[in-house]
Design goal:
Number of strands: 5
Strand content: 15-25%
Low-confidence stretches: 122-127
Distance between the termini: 25 Å
Mean pLDDT: 83
Order of helices and strands: EHEHEHEHHE
Structural class: alpha/beta
Length: 147
């Protein structure tokens, strides 16, 4: 079985990973853990704004590092629960919903696992929902672990 787990490092995602792993799985299960981050679109290239460009580069570097830490932490949770899994991590630039769906297609996932932060219907209408978007557009099964 191929499982794609999406995380953003939030307590909701950490709890979702822990809850999900309470179920039994085959020893040959492959797990791909993805974390998306969005690079700054305000990169400037010349003139007196060069220092601003360096600032944006540092923000992007910090965002990547936080995403990498989130993916690695989720991997450590998975390893602690089941040492028989093959585990891979990826940190990718892009909008979370798009990154998750694209990686699931490339990985040929049988299942996508995402956490939900428990917002109500009105918050989903206002802010959108990664888990809802993934569930609506995925080509495989999706498990939304609600905390």
């Amino acid at each position: 079985m191929k499982i794609l787990i999406a995380t953003d490092g939030s307590p909701y995602c950490k709890s979702a990973v822990e809850q999900f792993l309470q179920a039994p799985f085959a020893e040959n299960t492959q797990v791909r853990i993805v974390c998306a981050y969005k690079k700054s679109s305000l990169a400037l290239s010349a003139g007196p704004m060069i220092k601003l460009k360096d600032s944006y580069a540092q923000v992007d570097k910090n965002a990547f590092q936080l995403a990498e830490e989130a993916a690695n932490h989720a991997a450590s949770i998975v390893r602690a629960k089941n040492t028989g899994f093959t585990i891979m991590t990826a940190v990718l630039d892009g909008l979370p919903q798009h990154v998750i769906l694209q990686e699931a297609a490339v990985f040929n996932a049988d299942l996508i696992v995402v956490g939900a932060n428990g917002h109500g219907f009105s918050e989903h209408l206002q802010a959108g929902s990664v888990s809802m978007g993934v569930a609506l557009h995925a080509k495989c099964s999706v498990e939304i672990v609600r905390i």
